[in-house]
Amino acid sequence: MKLPLLSGIEVIKRLKKSGFVATRQKGSHVRLEKQLGEKTIKITVPLHPEIKKGTLHRILNDAQITLEEFDELS
Fold this sequence. Notes:
Blueprint: H1 8-17, E1 21-26, E2 29-36, E3 39-46, H2 53-63, H3 67-72
Antiparallel strand pairs: 1-2, 2-3
């Protein structure tokens, strides 16, 4: 399965569906957090019109979400 070309806003919407909460924004970057037991996952998503594939891949790895799970959140 190939990584989709998505905007930062669309990536944030999908991450929020999986339990992430936007905690702050600085410029064009939004910080999201999710509690997993005693651990907190923190991710920064750029609010660009199109997120590069490498950046999206890193976001999904950091969020511990597979591409299939991410695709189902659409």
